[in-house]
């Protein structure tokens, strides 16, 4: 009876993936390149699921390959709803991401296979989850806006996915072969982004691989992110992310994740995560994302110092050289700090109009209107405030922000008993990035990295190790 029941579930999962591929085929005319890319990744997810017999392992493998790909589909919406000061704003367009598709497949497969996992999550986090979900529901009833509904559903679904994965890894150990596979996939993804980013930096223009989600950019082109060094305009590395800062955040995430692999992989394969870390450290430089570069080098400095104290010997490299290399980037000034400051100055006037009810996930730019700051070139700076905490406070309102803070507190309290140096560095990095940028809560790739960082902080914590005795 168990075999038949198991076979029935496998059949339902197979039908789910077949249906997904059928739906994707409807978009072939829009972009055959993107159709092929998404289809390959979906098939990879399915085949890995059949091979590993573990939905969570298959999903993480899918994420390691798809996280950098900014492959999206914009939902039909009235053009007038995307205008601010008669300017079209991409942030106001409801968009589905390849990561959304992966999360949908993961959640649906779990509903088919084991619904009790959801019950466990509800029981463990029922009060903060209920309060946060209630706030989002009331917002959506009040606003009845497609953009708010989509962003709310995405944010809440990603939280559920994260909590399910944490419970999975608490209950089942990650096998050595799975760590090896993860290491290889992360290496391929990181190396791929490094190559694309370097070529963009060297050529000063995008490579034309838009079927992987690459932005169409060029040095000096309006809307592109570049720096001026010695009178020369240099394009910052984008990879296939929508902005260089997010690529830098990915390299930082890749560095920390590789540290986990180093600790848990067989020694003969340890060169793979070490090589990934080296690529991340070198390739983050042409992103010119000063905050994230500083965070990475600061983490290396702290870890090196800790290693020196424990081993009482010098390392084979000196972090001081890396710091000097970072400081050299500051010689070419830009208006980034001024723009960030001007965006923060606009926040109070926007927030005081939406203190309690908020303005809904993703609609911050809509409320800027004539208050939008102006760039050095005289253009309206129509972007969310570059501060995760201020952005969440304004879009969720006071009650929504407090309920989300309560949920974060509950998650950390339940999963972390005492912090390790790595856990502190990771949480500190999230805090600092959140103070200077918005992508961790405003873009699918950023939200995915946010929970990835939090997950790593938990994995590196003492409590999870004690509960499982040994991660590997």
Provide a descriptive summary of the structure in words.
There is one protein chain. The protein has helices at 2-24, 32-52, 55-66, 98-113, 116-124, 126-143, 146-171, 176-203, 244-264, 271-283, 290-311, 319-329, 336-351, 388-415, 421-436, 439-442, 444-459, 462-468; strands at 72-74, 83-84, 87-88, 95-97, 226-229, 232-235. α9 runs antiparallel to α10 (271-283) and α9 (244-264) packs parallel to α11 (290-311). A hairpin with a 2-residue loop joins β5 (226-229) and β6. Helices cover 65% and strands 4% of the residues. A two-stranded antiparallel ribbon has the order 1-4. The protein is globular and about 60 Å long. Mean pLDDT is 88; it is low at 1-5, 312-329 and 465-472. The two termini are 33 Å apart. The protein folds into 3 domains: 1-114, no CATH class; 116-174 and 343-472, no CATH class; 195-334, no CATH class. The protein has 472 residues and is mainly alpha-helical. The chain crosses the membrane at residues 35-51, 58-77, 89-113, 125-143, 149-169, 181-201, 245-262, 269-285, 291-309, 388-412, 419-436, 442-460.
């Amino acid at each position: 009876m168990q075999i038949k029941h198991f076979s029935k579930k496998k059949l339902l999962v197979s039908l789910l993936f077949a249906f997904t591929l059928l739906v994707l085929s409807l978009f072939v005319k829009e972009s055959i390149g993107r159709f092929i890319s998404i289809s390959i990744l979906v098939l990879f997810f399915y085949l890995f699921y059949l091979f590993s017999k573990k939905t969570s392992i298959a999903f993480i493998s899918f994420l390691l390959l798809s996280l950098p790909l900014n492959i999206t589909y914009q939902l039909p919406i009235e053009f007038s709803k995307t205008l601010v000061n008669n300017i079209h704003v991409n942030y106001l367009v409801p968009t589905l991401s390849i990561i959304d598709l992966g999360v949908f497949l993961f959640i649906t497969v779990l509903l088919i296979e084991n619904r009790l996992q959801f019950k466990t999550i509800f029981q463990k986090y029922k009060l903060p989850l209920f309060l946060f979900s209630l706030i989002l529901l009331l917002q959506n009833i009040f606003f009845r806006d497609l953009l708010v509904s989509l962003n709310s559903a995405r944010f809440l679904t990603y939280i559920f996915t994260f909590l399910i994965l944490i419970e999975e890894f608490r209950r089942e150990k990650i096998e050595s072969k799975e760590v090896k596979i993860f290491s290889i996939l992360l290496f391929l993804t990181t190396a791929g982004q490094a190559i694309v980013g370097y070529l963009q930096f060297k050529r000063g223009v995008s490579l034309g691989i838009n079927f992987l989600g690459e932005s169409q950019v060029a040095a000096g082109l309006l809307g592109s992110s570049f720096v001026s060094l010695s009178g020369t305009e240099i394009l910052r590395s984008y990879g296939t992310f929508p902005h260089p800062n997010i690529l830098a955040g990915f390299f930082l995430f890749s560095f920390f994740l590789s540290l986990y692999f180093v600790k848990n992989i067989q020694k003969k394969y340890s060169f793979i995560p070490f090589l990934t870390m080296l690529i991340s450290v070198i390739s983050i430089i042409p992103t010119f994302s000063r905050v994230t570069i500083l965070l990475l080098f600061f983490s290396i400095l702290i870890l090196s110092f800790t290693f020196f104290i424990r081993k009482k010997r010098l390392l084979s490299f000196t972090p001081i050289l890396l710091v000097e290399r970072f400081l050299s980037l500051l010689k070419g000034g830009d208006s980034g700090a001024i723009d960030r400051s001007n965006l923060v100055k606009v926040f109070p006037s926007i927030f005081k109009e939406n203190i309690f009810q908020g303005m809904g996930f993703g609609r911050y730019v809509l409320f800027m209107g004539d208050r939008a700051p102006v760039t050095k070139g005289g253009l309206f700076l129509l972007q969310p405030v570059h501060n995760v905490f201020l952005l969440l406070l304004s879009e969720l309102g006071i009650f929504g922000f407090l309920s989300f803070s309560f949920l974060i507190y509950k998650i950390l309290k339940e999963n972390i008993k005492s912090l390790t140096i790595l856990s502190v560095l990771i949480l500190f990095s999230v805090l600092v990035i959140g103070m200077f940028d918005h992508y961790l809560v405003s873009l699918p790739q950023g939200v995915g990295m946010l929970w990835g960082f939090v997950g790593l902080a938990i994995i590196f914590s003492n409590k999870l190790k004690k509960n499982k005795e040994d991660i590997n």
